[in-house]
Design a protein that fits this description.
The complex is a heterotrimer of chains A (318), B (556) and C (354). Helix content of chain A is 78%, strand content 0%. Chain A has 318 residues and is an all-alpha fold. In chain A, helix 1 packs antiparallel against helix 14, helix 5 crosses helix 9 and helix 5 packs antiparallel against helix 11. Chain C is built from 13 helices and no strands. In chain C, helix 11 packs antiparallel against helix 13. Chain C starts with a helix and ends in a 6-residue tail after the last helix. The chains are: A mainly alpha (318), B alpha/beta (556), C mainly alpha (354).
């Protein structure tokens, strides 16, 4: 058990370290700006004085490490400073949008995860049949389509042509949950399509990979039925790869959501990031990047810990 | 003993099985007949590719992925399996025909406890309630002489040793009291001392329940202990079948006779040169450990003289391969040194000169992984000659031809071919030629014959012997097979847990008195005598076998 | 309408029966499942639904026919060893190869195929399709079709160069790390772990916000983002080769790292590496399409599929499908590459799925 705890501790430490390194990267990327931040923000119209004032305001006279530490200590408590364009507090701009993004991702995940694992198991069971081939072609097609392609097709058919669902999910306001789910159905569906295909394929691969093991043949030679072979003998050993797949795709849901948010004009953090990039509002860009990276790293961490916990060899040491 | 009056349990007629390779179906079993009576044990024996395992699986009505039963009938206790439905066939498996696989470690599901896998069959067929099935499992564990029979089942497979797992799998096969058990090379992956316990356990349990069995193996001595009748197979066809004693004493077919004769090759033993000349390689007081690990070699010392063969013998984990890694410089020792003709070699191969590297060559166990599949034979053999001697063009080609001649392969036929196109024995010969191309003084042969069929192995041993005489080579032979030691060694070094237990000239080593471990090792090697196991067990005392193997000590 | 429905079912039933009679199992399965699907769609969607199904089936059949013919063509012109491999290719893979071929032709001969230049203003904004302009005009009155052809060159060329760069870096480092091993390997592995824990689209956005949308920077950034993936795969594949005894034999002979990589490892890793190149291209291509859709990729007036979608997106609310064509072009090429890769992976996995 000690070994297990140590392994998990190691993973957590490593995750934290990675996060730290990424935060340094994000911070120093802005330092690489040609000229400096003040000039970049103010652009060519700026006079000497305004630039100097801006420098003063941003505290650019202090050394980079000091500013990094300030930025990081602020970030830890959710304070990312002020927007360089509007002067608004970054945390105010982000907080609501971030929860919107999380909502949308959770909506898609709740639908996609169970469906894709079930379907993945099903195609593994029916491998090399017509059903499997068709599923293969369909998932490949879905993976290969850019999110905005799927998004616009959904808009075209379910909104413009039939009028079943709204095309734009922008006005949120105070809506009931049911109303929310209805309004955001199309963006969620676009995400579900991409993510389900990925997860299904990877689940199938994980299970089929295991089916070649001798203990599966042993189970068959013990007279175990095909369904039970998969559920009882293959699945318990497939959890680690499946957990990884799910975590990877959840991470994708949160970061890859950017394009879908833009297509459906959804007020999420991705939309904010894209706007900030266009306006060169670095305070917001940095904050968004850090939040995305942290989510991504956390989910990967969760996957690692999950696969350690489901590994019988590690759970029951000698 | 086969008895025609007994009831027939399994009857296979004109069985043809095809395998799918390169987009065509090819016959791998070409019409085999087999009759097995209740309570009878039949040994299926043959070299790799003979189709033993395929027939074993077919007896359960099971065709492995990529194979299909094309023709013939398989009748089990009056039921035709080839025309039975999937469900009918599945209902037989585990309940009436059980299977014991080669690698227990891989064949137990790592995610479930041993006893839960054991009771899966009885529960599925509703033969017993869970508690009864568990009690029965513990009873079987006891009969198979597993330690802590009441607890061992509640462990996970990776928490139990290989020999114990193999017995647990035999117990699992027994769980529904089947009429027939297929044993598919159940002891091949085990060390000799562990093999004994498993063999004894299997034989006892099969006797106790009067279960019929098909025992598949490539080892004649093993099958002689286990089977009532022996069927010899070659390339998917039957060679002959007879009762065990009859088969051992008077084989009829040439192929069988040649199999029997394999172990007879023995060359005269050479003594060390009397003039006191320096040994080619001497290992002096070597300790070694892998990074962060415990010591794997502890004060190992021995000499290899020119023109002589030193066999290093031991079970897996004894440190014999590690010794080879120290000599070649792959694993620098933590203490001690390796001398080449009296001069100390740098510990790591990276620091050795080209000439030092050239002098010590290596031949590997698995010719498949020892030859790059994408490199032409001419380049495999030519590269060392080019690298060390700077040969190019016509001179290089001539040298390659010479080397191919030396290993008895026709140069023009092999020059432009790739390793995957060759047979196991041919590949091993190419491996030898590659070592010779460097013109070394010393060659390490790491289990060079253990992956080969016996006939082929003998050819390789004879070739190595001839080359030694012609080229005055010194060999270090790493092996676990005492028959190989008997046939080719001049001196023997016995290793256990990283230490040298005993060493000396071969004749002395095979003659008592010897160290208890050497004795255990020697006595554990199966012999062709069908009564060998029985006699040995009586000698050692039944309760003692397991104990003896574990501690490596033998009660005086 | 009624005659269409009767003829449609009649043909399908007759064909299924014929297939069953001649014991063509696959053909029967296909035809019969088509029949069943048609019945369901016919009940739900009426004759219009049936028409849709019939058109879809005909399109699929045409694609299958083209793929079949193209595969036969390749088998004819290829070397014998390659031809034997090609003969085992499923129709999906043949279809993929055909599409890749078409795109390559379009990209290479774009100036000759396209009737107009990519920046040429021909007509009024959003002019409908006519004889002159196959697909109508875009938001500035440029010919959609010509821009579509030119974009094949621009978009694919850019993605390809980023992939090649990523591949050179990733595969080079992976092979080297596998051969050297030790701390060198570990250090590389750590760096890669960190790079891979940064979401690629986000990181690309960060860098682009700083350096602006410069093509060289896009290529370099995307290559750096995807090199770690290549590194991991190469390291894993080469890692399987490095443990082989023949590598040990070569090392003990005194061969250098470069010899090991070139003569011993590379010949054994080409198949998975080629497949990985295809996969990598898909990722890079999709990422770049995403960037240019966000307006951060190739800048106007150069034609590019991603930005074409964005520029003409307003048309979608009028029920037009023209803006979807560039998006479909992206999807089609990615699907094609994926089909080929899928087959290659299946081959190199040694058919173990059977």
């Amino acid at each position: 058990m000690d070994k297990l705890l140590r392994l998990i501790g190691q993973r957590l430490g490593l995750g934290l370290l990675t996060l730290l390194v990424v935060s340094v990267l994000i911070f120093s990327a802005v330092e690489l700006l040609p000229g400096d931040l003040a000039e970049a923000v103010l652009g060519q119209a700026a006079t000497e004085e305004t630039v100097a004032a801006m420098r003063e305001q941003l505290g650019l006279d202090r050394s980079a490490p000091v500013r990094y530490l300030e930025w990081l200590s602020g970030a830890v408590v959710g304070d990312f400073g002020n927007s360089l364009i509007s002067g608004e507090r970054v945390s105010d701009a982000i907080s609501e949008r971030f929860s919107n993004t999380l909502m949308l991702a959770a909506y898609a995940a709740v639908i996609a995860v169970p469906i894709s694992i079930l379907l993945g198991i099903m195609v593994a069971l029916l491998r090399n049949t017509l059903f499997d081939r068709v599923a293969n072609v369909m998932t490949l097609t879905s993976i290969s389509s850019p999110e905005f392609f799927l998004g616009y097709i959904l808009i075209l058919y379910f909104s413009v042509k039939t009028g079943w669902f709204p095309a734009i999910a922008s006005q949120m306001g105070d809506t009931s949950l049911g109303d929310y789910l209805y309004r955001t159905f199309l963006p969620a569906l676009a995400l579900v399509l991409v993510v389900t295909a990925h997860m299904m394929r990877m689940t199938r691969a994980a299970i089929i990979n295991l089916l070649a093991s001798p203990y599966i043949e042993m189970a068959r030679l013990k007279g175990v039925s095909p369904l039970k072979v998969i559920v009882k003998h293959a699945l318990p050993n497939a959890w680690a790869p499946i957990i990884n797949v799910v975590a990877l795709n959840l991470a994708y849901l949160i970061t890859g959501v950017v394009l879908v948010e833009v297509v459906f004009v959804y007020p999420g953090i991705g939309q904010l990031l894209v706007d900030a990039v266009a306006k060169r509002d670095f305070a917001i860009v940095q904050a968004c990047c850090l939040i995305f990276a942290a989510t991504f790293i956390l989910l990967n961490l969760a996957a690692d810990v999950g696969s350690i916990l489901t590994n019988p060899r590690l759970r029951h040491p000698k | 003993m086969s008895n025609p009056k007994k009831e027939v349990l399994l009857k296979i007629e004109g069985l043809k099985i095809q395998g799918f390779t390169d987009d065509v179906w090819i016959d791998i079993i070409k019409g085999v007949d087999l009759i097995l009576h209740r309570g009878e044990v039949m040994g299926l024996i043959g070299e790799s590719g003979a189709g033993k395992s395929t027939i074993g699986a077919a007896a359960m009505g099971y065709a492995r992925d990529g194979t299909r039963i094309a023709e013939g009938s398989i009748e089990f206790d009056g039921m035709e399996l080839t025309t039975a439905t999937q469900v009918e066939r599945r209902a037989l498996r585990g309940s009436r025909i059980a299977y014991v696989a080669q690698s227990a470690a891989a064949s137990f599901n790592p995610a479930h406890k041993i006893i839960d896998q054991h009771t899966e069959g009885p529960l599925q067929y509703r033969l017993r309630k869970r508690m009864e099935a568990q009690e029965d499992a513990m009873d079987l564990y006891q009969r198979l002489r597993l330690p802590n029979p009441r607890e061992i089942g509640f462990r996970y497979p990776h928490q139990v040793s290989g020999g114990q797992l193999q017995r647990a799998m035999t117990a699992m096969a027994m769980s529904c009291r089947p009429d027939l058990i297929i044993f598919d090379e159940p002891t091949t992956a085990l060390d000799v001392t562990t093999q004994i316990e498993v063999l004894a356990a299997i034989r006892d349990i099969v006797d106790q329940f009067n279960t019929a069995a098909i025992y598949i193996t490539h080892d004649l001595a093993v099958v002689a202990q286990m089977a009532d009748t022996i069927k010899v197979l070659l390339k998917g066809e039957e060679v002959e079948e007879a009762a065990t004693e009859e088969m051992l004493e008077a084989p009829k077919k040439d192929y069988t006779k040649s199999l029997w004769a394999v172990r007879s090759f023995q060359r005269p033993q050479k003594a060390r040169p009397a003039d006191g000349s320096e040994a080619v390689i001497s290992v002096k007081g070597v300790d070694a450990a892998y990074t962060g690990g415990a010591k794997v070699l502890d004060d190992v010392s021995f000499d290899v003289c020119a023109g002589m063969t030193v066999a290093v013998v031991g079970e897996s984990g004894s440190g014999k391969s590690t010794t080879a890694r120290v000599i070649t410089g792959l694993l620098p020792p933590s203490k001690g040194e390796v001398l080449f003709k009296g001069e100390a070699l740098p510990p790591s191969f990276r620091d050795r000169s080209r000439d030092q590297l050239r002098q010590a060559q290596m031949i590997y166990q698995m010719a498949d992984t020892a030859l790059n599949p994408k490199v032409r034979i001419s380049d495999v053999i030519g590269r060392p000659a080019e690298f060390y001697s700077g040969l190019t063009g016509a001179a290089l080609k001539q040298r390659v031809d010479e080397l191919l001649d030396l290993i008895e392969l026709e140069p023009s036929q092999y020059y432009n071919r790739y390793p995957p196109e060759l047979s196991g024995g041919q590949k091993q010969r190419i491996g030898i030629a590659r070592a010779l191309a460097a013109e070394p003084a010393f060659i390490i042969c790491d289990e060079v014959t253990s992956a080969l069929d016996q006939l082929v192995a003998e050819g390789i041993l004879k070739l190595l012997d001839r080359l030694q005489r012609d080229l005055d080579l010194a060999y270090m032979f790493i092996t676990h097979d005492l028959a190989t030691v008997r046939s080719i060694a001049d001196e023997v070094v016995v290793m256990k847990n990283g230490q040298v237990v005993e060493q000396g000239p071969k004749d002395e080593m095979f003659r008592p008195p010897h160290h208890p471990y050497t004795d255990l090792l020697l006595s554990s090697v199966p012999e062709m005598d069908p009564n060998w196991l029985t006699t040995l067990l009586e000698e050692r005392g039944v309760d003692n076998i397991g104990e003896a193997a574990r501690t490596g000590q033998r009660a005086p | 309408m009624l005659t269409f429905v009767i003829v449609y079912y009649g043909v399908l039933i007759a064909a299924s029966c014929a297939a069953a009679y001649f014991k063509q199992r696959q053909a029967f399965q296909l035809l019969f499942s088509l029949l069943l699907v048609s019945m369901v769609v016919g009940i739900v969607g009426g004759a219009a639904g049936l028409r849709f199904i019939a058109i879809a089936a005909c399109l699929l059949a045409a694609a299958a026919g083209i793929s079949y013919a193209f595969r036969e063509f390749l088998v004819q012109i290829a070397k014998p060893s390659l031809a034997r491999e090609l003969r085992t290719a499923p129709l999906t893979a043949a279809f993929g190869m055909f599409i890749i071929f078409v795109y390559a032709v379009a990209a290479i001969f774009a100036p000759w195929i396209a009737p107009f230049g990519q920046a040429e203003v021909i007509d009024s904004a959003f002019a409908p399709a006519d004889d002159k302009m196959l697909l109508g005009a875009d938001q500035l009155g440029r010919d959609m079709f010509s821009r579509l052809i030119y974009a094949a060159r621009n978009t694919v060329g850019l993605a390809l160069s980023a992939t090649i760069l990523a591949f050179l870096m990733g595969a080079g480092a992976g092979l080297w790390a596998a051969v050297r091993g030790g701390w060198f390997d570990t250090a590389f592995g750590r760096v890669v772990d960190i790079l891979m824990s940064i979401p690629s689209l986000i990181f690309a956005l960060l860098i682009l916000s700083i350096f602006g949308t410069n093509l060289t920077i896009i290529v370099v950034v995307v290559a750096i983002m995807y090199a770690p993936r290549v590194f991991r795969l190469t390291r894993a594949v080469a890692g399987n080769v490095v443990v082989m005894d023949y590598i040990e034999a070569a090392r003990l002979r005194g061969e250098g790292d470069w010899f090991l990589i070139r003569r011993e490892i590379l010949p054994n890793t080409t198949a998975p590496l080629i497949a990985e190149f295809g996969l990598e291209f898909c990722f890079v291509f999709l990422l770049m399409a995403g960037l240019s859709f966000l307006g951060l990729g190739i800048q106007p007036p150069t034609a590019d599929w991603g930005s074409m979608v964005r520029e003409n997106a307003t048309l979608i609310s009028f029920g037009e499908i023209t803006p979807l064509i560039p998006a479909a072009a992206i999807a089609l090429l990615t699907v094609a590459v994926n089909f080929v890769v899928d087959w290659m992976l299946f081959r190199s996995s040694g058919l173990k799925e059977r």
